[in-house]
Design a protein that fits this description.
With 154 residues, the chain is mostly helical. It is built from eight helices and two strands, in the order αααααααββα.
């Protein structure tokens, strides 16, 4: 949920509230070490951080926990990317559709699809994009989302 701090200060509880504090992801080296300490091989840890988790705690935990049950890295990656695809489907943005073209600059078609989507707020709700209040930027929610987009034509 995005809250316009400035317009909500009229409410007395918001006038006393501190600005939101954003907890950022850990760096890639620490993320790889975390996975290795959880029993993931060095090679799979590097691939997971590069392609799927980045330094996002939740995804690091999912990858480590799933691999510890004997599931291969490729299967974990496949499952996570299927979840990302479901998120795009929920907001009716088809990145495999006819609007997707490699002839356009990177991301241009995605930006146009988002701008024309009646479901813009759903993109944040379904964790496709993240809003970072400290920098006022919107980015892909995770490396898994970025990897999914790249694998499907970006």
């Amino acid at each position: 949920m995005i809250i316009d701090y400035n317009s909500s200060t009229a409410n007395s509880s918001w006038s006393r509230a501190n600005r939101p504090y954003e907890i950022t992801d850990i760096d890639d080296t620490s993320a790889q070490l975390y996975l290795q300490n959880r029993g993931v091989t060095e090679e799979d840890a590097k691939r997971a951080v590069t392609e799927i988790t980045g330094g996002r705690f939740h995804l690091l935990d999912v990858v480590a926990g799933t691999i510890s049950t004997g599931t291969s890295y490729e299967e974990v990656k496949k499952r996570i990317l299927e979840e990302v695809e479901d998120k795009f489907d929920k907001v009716s943005i088809n990145i495999k559709g006819s609007w997707w073209s490699k002839n356009n600059k990177q991301g241009l078609k995605l930006v146009k699809a988002v701008a024309n989507s009646p479901n813009q707020s759903e993109l944040l709700k379904h964790n496709i994009f993240s809003y970072h209040p400290s920098t006022n930027q919107i980015t892909f929610q995770s490396r898994a989302v970025a990897t999914y987009v790249k694998q499907n034509g970006l």
